[in-house]
Write a structure and sequence with these properties.
This protein is α/β, with parallel strands linked by helices and about 375 residues long. It has eight helices and 16 strands. The strands form four sheets. An eight-stranded mixed sheet has the order 1-2-4-3-5-16-6-15, covered by helices on one side. The chain has a four-stranded antiparallel sheet with strand order 10-12-8-13, with helices on one face. Strands 7-14 form a two-stranded antiparallel sheet. α3 (about 100-120) links the parallel β3 and β4. α1 crosses α8 and α3 crosses α8.
Length: about 375
């Protein structure tokens, strides 16, 4: 009988080594050249045939040829954050850090590909190493356009979770992340003296009215069971204390886990902004940039795969998790095939854990072993013939 645990254990040192190498040499979105080259070298040494993308950032590799296609996705890019840690493999690149766990996702996916090869299964799995997840709207749209997930029966991925203790996997049916859209609002008027706002258009006052009321009004126009988070990140206007400016520029994000609310959001935002600015006489220009839909986990796949993970890790190791209001371009793959995004616990001590995208984010490397075991169980279940 094949010792699957032994095979997984045999690739673990490589997984740890590669994770540390990627962490030490992080690369920003669209520049993951060395990371891609490192992966290609390991896969080639295992007698696999990786297919590099034309920009040479990201690759895919197929293991096995029989049965329906199953895809396991990992992401490669780091963030523009300076790492303060004194780890021996801390970032050696000024101002760049793997603060979101993509180094772990990538190393686990590589380990699973190597293990699948060693086990000798001929069931077909495509390992997809995606660049540019951290930029708006993300690199998944390019991967989909290239046909990398065309014909897939299912697609799965991990995302580390510092709010979940190592040894546990989080999952839920339905929306597990929110949409992520961006908007900008330009309010314009003729400008004037602050002593005589009644003779001109006070675009600063109009901007304050929009900022204060936009979210509350839209809340009353959308089903209360579908939360919508509208948040302003930038406001720019004016150059002097006693001058009413001719324009105020504002921008922010719209996030919702509800697909119907996501569809309605652009029209609602434009209409409500115009109505709010109208009493002030300001000219309004709204630009709405579609980003990402919510990640909606397939309920049938969740029901099927959660027990497989528990069989690999033990009873009560799969936990129901929350819906994040962050965005994830894994959502774009789900337009092509049903799938599941799992949360991989990576905190040795939850009370001491720091959030993703924090310079203090620290990953418990024991989670790499958990990811190998859970990931293999997921792939084994997805590729097994169903009666």
């Amino acid at each position: 009988m094949l010792d699957t645990a032994g095979v997984l254990a045999s690739v673990l040192p490589t997984v740890v080594e590669v994770r540390r190498a990627i962490h030490h040499h992080p690369e920003l979105s669209k520049h993951e050249y060395a990371t891609t080259e490192l992966l290609a070298r390991h896969l080639t040494e295992a007698r696999l045939t990786p297919r590099l993308r034309t920009p040479k950032t990201g690759l895919t590799v197929d293991v096995g040829t029989e049965g329906p296609l199953v895809v396991f996705r990992a992401d490669l890019d780091a963030l523009p954050i300076s790492e303060p840690s004194r780890l021996p493999f801390a970032s050696g690149t000024d101002g760049v850090m793997h603060a979101c766990g993509h180094d772990a996702h990538t190393a686990i996916a590589l380990g699973l590909a190597l293990a699948w090869t060693k086990i000798g299964s001929n069931r077909r799995v495509r390992f997809l190493f995606q660049p540019s997840e951290e930029v708006f709207p993300g690199g998944a749209d390019e991967i989909v356009a290239e046909g990398a997930v065309k014909g897939a029966e299912a697609i799965v991925a991990f995302h580390v979770d510092p709010h979940l203790r190592t040894g546990f996997v989080g999952v839920k049916p339905g929306s597990i992340t929110a949409s992520a859209d961006r908007f900008s609002i330009l309010l314009e008027g003729p400008g004037g003296h602050t002593a005589r706002p009644h003779e001109t258009v006070d675009v600063v006052q109009a901007a304050g009215h929009v900022i204060s009321n936009l979210s509350g009004i839209i809340d009353r126009l959308i089903d209360a069971r579908a939360p919508v988070a509208i948040t302003f990140g930038q406001v720019h206007g004016g150059t002097a204390d006693n001058v009413l400016p001719t324009s105020v520029q504002m921008s922010g994000t719209v996030r919702t886990p509800d697909h119907d609310a996501w569809e309605r959001a652009p029209e609602l935002l434009r209409r409500v902004v115009a109505d709010l600015a109208a009493p002030f006489g300001a000219t309004v220009e709204v630009r709405y940039n579609r980003g990402l839909p919510p990640v909606v986990n397939d309920p049938a796949l969740v029901a099927r795969l959660a027990p497989a993970v528990e069989r690999a890790l033990g009873p009560d190791t799969v936990r129901s998790t929350h819906t994040s209001m962050g965005g994830e371009d894994f959502a774009l793959y789900l337009n092509e095939a049903p799938g599941v995004l799992f949360r991989l616990g990576c905190a040795a001590d939850i009370s001491q854990a720091n959030d993703l995208h924090s310079a203090s984010f620290m990953l418990d490397e024991e989670s790499l072993w958990i990811g190998l075991r859970a990931g293999h169980a997921i792939l084994e279940d997805l590729t097994s013939p169903r009666s």
